[in-house]
Amino acid sequence: NGRRFPTIDEIYRWASAMPEADLPLDLTFIEDRLYATDFYDLALDEIPRKIGAGSIVRIADPVAGRADHWLLELEFTDTVTPEIVAQFFLRLQPVLPAEVAVALEWVVRSPQQEQIAQRMEADRLPYHDRIVRFGELVPTGTVAVYNEGVAAGRLLYVGEGGAALGDATSTDIVITEHVPDWLPPASAMITSDPQTPLAHINLLARNRGIPNASQAGIHDDAGLLQAARVHAYAIVITRGSTMRIALISAEQYDEWADRQIPTPIAVPPVDVADMPLVVDLADLVAQLSADGLTEADIAAWTSALGGKSAGFLTLLSTPGLTPPPDPLAITIRPYIEHIAPIRSTLAASITNREVVKDPRARWLILEGTEDYAVRFPSDRDSAFADEFTSTNPPGTAVGVVLAAGGIRALIESSAIDPETLQVITTELERTYASYNVSAGLRFRSSSSVEDIEGFNGAGLYTSYTGYLQPEQLDEEDDRDNTVERAILRAWGSYWSFEAFEERSLAKIDHLSGAMGLTVHARFDDDLERNNGVATFSFLRGGGADDAVVEINVQAGAVAVTNPDPNDVELPEIIRMTRSNGMISIERLAGSTIVEADEQVLDDAAAYELFGQIASVAALWRTRLNESLLEPQRVQTVVLDFEFKTMEPGWPRLDDGLTPYPARLIVRQVRSLDPGLRELPSSVRELAVPRDVLTRAALVATVRCSLPGVAATEHIEVLTDPLLVPDMGFAEQPLIIGPVPSATATCSRVVHYSSPRQALVGLVDSGGAFVIIG
């Protein structure tokens, strides 16, 4: 439409302020990324080629002392010709720095690209001497573990002569040469090519808790390929810098699978009749703190406010902390009332037989046809969509949802009840009366299924910005960014495809959950000095306050929590350790967007962050222990934080008011501790520290006797070293009770053995046949 923008940020601000249906060029948002189907059609599929798309990647040579490689990396799905490859070189070399241009090589990423590479080399076509494979850059057998774990499944080779990526199911161990652009349902992912640590598939693997690793040349391993051809059952163990794959029988797999199925859970129903629509979180903390904020208080309010807002109750009650000012919570009540008229339609749609069994139907029912072809690009997928739509005409529950463009669109297209919206808006106007008209409010997803027992839910939902008086904004494109639109879009994100899939894997009743919202000032990009995440862990076995903090921080507004998978910039990584009251700092990696000698977070700022989040962790641990019996009290808690450092003037206030100073903002806290969901109630009640019990691999009662001496009984607990932090009882158990004599005769009763422990035991005992590692 003739518009021009000085920066990418300006494009995103313009697009975010418009109704998605009004965006030109078929632009749409996929999570936080502005996406154009037409661009990829032109860049990858159009004949003749009009646009080229790819990345320039720097990778170290495997031989020490040799120069780094500069790689031209095209999309995995990109169908190329020798002429297209040559065109990339001809266009790129004149505009690249000289040292990059002379070293530029094309790295092969797919079977089709390999065929073209071989043809170029055989016929000595232009740039045949600039072709490289990842196998040449990473020595065969080199293992990189991106996510530790233990899993079982059926081996599935994806690639030439094997299966397609879309054929994978949640029970498959996917083996592939090249790093795919998306992560299918899988029990483990193993690539031959190395992965980028913050690649999208790795982030999803972490979220699902599945093993993810690369081993150079593994796609050529004859034994593994033969096992994959018959879809053999196997175990994968990724730990540290090692990976093992071992074959097991169908009976062994079935026994493990029966124990692996999570117990279905649902959020307990909540009566919303008398629930407020909006809660001032600071006022709520003041009321609760009068009698002492307890674990029961947090649990009770989590069901009404959602996980994110409940985390603010701890942040706001921690002395000396600097959370976002003036935070409000929109409770789950308006969401529940909003979907009440369509609840039966939603229930019928998500339980539709085709929807339950096929991810393509789930995408259509959740997201509609928009971007369906991006995720499911084959002719077979297109035919499925046509048939699914035709067999579910308007008038049926599924037909109603499809006609609306999916559940998300159905929720977002229905106006909020005017009286409800007025109550919410009035409270927002009262709270943020001193804020400048240009100060956006961030409506952050706070679902009631975040941070519940056994399910973290981090990163599954989307937050949006709205303005109280958008009609007064200078930018015309911002004037559609209303409070109502921001709320509706955040509610709709509960029904995103990815969120639905993750809840399904965790056996969570989708309709039992609801979406609340946390509201505070938007973090303006131009005022953002840095942003990051930090994991705080109290350590077991040393001093009571010994702890380790892992920090990932990035300069400016370049995201750490949701990095662009197609333009990955690596963050600064810092580890801080407190032992016997002394804090040490290790700088493990620098940010890729600052100079090599610069620090995103200097030592003083790192110490400040450590101090603030340590105070939160101490309060969290104290509150948790007050809810437990003495023998069950914990030494360890593991918390995940999000933080930003903001420049002076955030949030933007009206003229004449004293601006806020520059400061660190701790904007979120959630627990990363494992839950007790899979443990029998009898085990939960044992006199064992809760932090040990939640990481238990084996729990047994041992009865020992000596001639002429009364028998004694104790509890033994072995812990899983893959659950952070390692409790230290992987080899020698924690003993609760009298330690028996070495000459005593003992018998044991096993109360609990984890599914993962069973797999590790099979490999260690020789009950599984190791073929890799």
In short:
31% of the residues lie in helices and 24% in strands. It is of the alpha+beta class and 773 residues long.
Overall description:
With 773 residues, the protein is of the alpha+beta class. The protein is 31% helix and 24% strand. The chain is built from 27 helices and 29 strands. The strands form six sheets. The protein has an eight-stranded mixed β-sheet. The chain has a six-stranded antiparallel β-sheet with strand order 22-21-20-19-23-24. A five-stranded antiparallel β-sheet has the order 14-15-18-16-17. Strand 19 (528-538) and strand 20 form a beta hairpin. The radius of gyration is 28 Å and the shape is globular. It starts with 7 loop residues before the first helix and ends with a strand. The mean pLDDT is 90.
Strand neighbour order, sheet with most strands: 7-11-10-9-8-12-13-29
Mean pLDDT: 90
* Sheet with most strands: 8 strands, mixed
Helical content band: 25-40%
- What is the straight-line distance between the termini? 57 Å
Gross morphology is globular
What Rg do the Cα atoms give? Answer: 28 Å
Helix and strand content put the structural class at alpha+beta
Low-pLDDT sequence parts: none
How much strand content do the residues show?
15-25%
The number of E-state strands comes to 29
Number of helices: 27
Write the SSE topology.
Blueprint: H1 8-16, E1 27-30, E2 33-36, H2 37-45, E3 54-59, E4 69-74, H3 82-92, H4 98-101, E5 104-107, H5 111-122, E6 131-132, H6 134-137, E7 143-147, E8 149-158, E9 172-176, E10 188-191, H7 200-208, E11 212-215, H8 222-229, E12 233-239, E13 242-247, H9 250-260, E14 278-280, H10 281-289, H11 295-305, H12 307-316, E15 328-330, H13 333-339, H14 343-350, H15 353-357, H16 359-367, H17 372-375, H18 379-390, H19 397-404, H20 407-412, H21 418-431, E16 441-447, E17 464-466, H22 483-492, H23 497-505, E18 515-521, E19 528-538, E20 547-555, E21 572-579, E22 582-589, H24 603-626, E23 638-646, E24 663-671, H25 681-684, H26 690-693, E25 696-706, E26 709-719, E27 734-736, E28 745-753, H27 755-765, E29 769-772
Parallel strand pairs: 4-5, 5-6, 8-9, 9-10, 10-11
Antiparallel strand pairs: 1-2, 3-4, 7-11, 8-12, 12-13, 13-29, 14-15, 15-18, 16-17, 16-18, 19-20, 19-23, 20-21, 21-22, 23-24, 25-26, 25-28, 26-27
